Amino acid sequence: MKTVALSIGHSPQDGGSVTTNRKYSEYGFWKLHIGRVKAELERLGYKAVVCNRSEAGGKTPLFAARRCNEIGADLAVEFHFNGADTGIGGTETLHWYSSKNGKKAAQLIQTAMCEVLRLPDRGLKPVRYKDDRGYYYFKETDMPALMLEPAFASSHVTDCDRLETRIDELCLAIARAIDEYFKQA
């Protein structure tokens, strides 16, 4: 049985970015909704483990990687949402630059998220350098790993609205894209 680590971005202490309507931090939003992804993966026959950085003793992406490694995951997916000062919006997925399987999983999930949210497709973002977002998370994970940024929910009102109103569909789409990744592997 394949194991998927569903890592909640940030920590209970720092929370991450906050939605434009001020309802949720990244951590709070995904803590509330990640169970839907987990339930669908389990229905599809996977072991899905929800984890966060603080379970491995810290607040940084390095601790998220350690937690994913501890559970022996075959794929690690960390959940976030974006923000920017420029007013841009859209959906993007980060992956380690040299991981072919990570890129394959990223493309499948990116496509699924774009189909549900109908936001601009900002594409895949390979992570390679220390100043790239999530560098230590990707560098330290032992398995293909992704960071999902389905919407610019902390800076773009439309993105925030789409993320909140289509969250059930989004969670199912992400789980089914993960299933497709394993079927193609």
Q: How large, in whole angstroms, is the Cα Rg?
A: 15 Å
Strand sequence of the main sheet, in spatial order?
2-1-3-6-4-5
Class computed from helices, strands and strand pairing: alpha/beta
The chain-level mean pLDDT equals 94
Number of helices: 6
The CATH class: Alpha Beta
User: Strand fraction band?
Assistant: 15-25%
- SSE string, helices as H and strands as E: EHEHEEHEHEHH
Main beta sheet: 6 strands, mixed
Tally of discrete structural domains: 1
| Through-space gap between termini | 14 Å
Shape: globular
List keywords for this structure.
6 strands; 6-stranded mixed beta sheet; 185 residues; globular; 6 helices; 43% helix; Aminopeptidase; alpha/beta
Report on the architecture of this protein.
With 185 residues, this protein is of the alpha/beta class. The protein has a single domain (3-153, 171-184), classed as Aminopeptidase (3-Layer(aba) Sandwich). 43% of the residues lie in helices and 19% in strands. It is built from six helices and six strands; from the N terminus they run βαβαββαβαβαα. A six-stranded mixed beta sheet has the order 2-1-3-6-4-5, sandwiched between helices. It is globular.
